Amino acid sequence: MMESNRPSIENEDQYEALRDKGYSKEKAARIANTADSGEKGGSATKYEDRTKKELYDQAKKVGIEDRSKMDKEELIKALRNN
User: Fold this and answer.
1) For an engineered disulfide with 23, which of 13, 28, 57, 80 has Cβ 3.0 to 4.6 Å away?
2) Alpha-carbon separation of residue 28 from 10, 13, 43, 73 (angstroms)
C-alpha cells in the first residue's frame, strides 16, 4: 500500500523488507531507489579501496551533511553509519 506522503519507491519489495528490519523510512527509500536495488553479487568495491572523491560523491548522493569537512576515514564512517 502506497502512502501519499512519501516519495516514489523504485523497489517496493526491498523497501518493505528494509522497513520490517527496522530501517527508517528515509534510509529504506534511499536504498530501494538505488540503480542496482535488489541485485545481488557483492560487486561494490570496499570503501577503503575508493578515492576520497568517490566517497564524497557517494556521501553527497545519500545526503550526508558536512561531508566537505570530512577526511577519507570520516567519510567511510559516515557512509557506514548512514
Assistant:
1) 28
2) 11, 11, 20, 24
- Residues 33, 55 within the same domain: no
Which residue bears the cell 576520497?
52
Query: Taking Cα atoms as reference points, which of 53, 52, 36 lies closest to residue 44?
Result: 36
Within a domain: 64 = yes
What residue ranges in 1-82 does DSSP mark as E strands?
none
Dist CA 50 CA 33 (whole Å): 22
Within a domain: residue 4? no
Cα–Cα dist 54/79, whole Å: 12
Q: Is residue 57 part of a domain?
A: yes
Q: Name the residue range of residue 23's domain.
A: 9-37
Q: Give the cell for residue 13.
A: 519489495
Residue 54 pLDDT > 80, yes or no?
yes
pTM exceeding the 0.90 threshold for the entire prediction: no
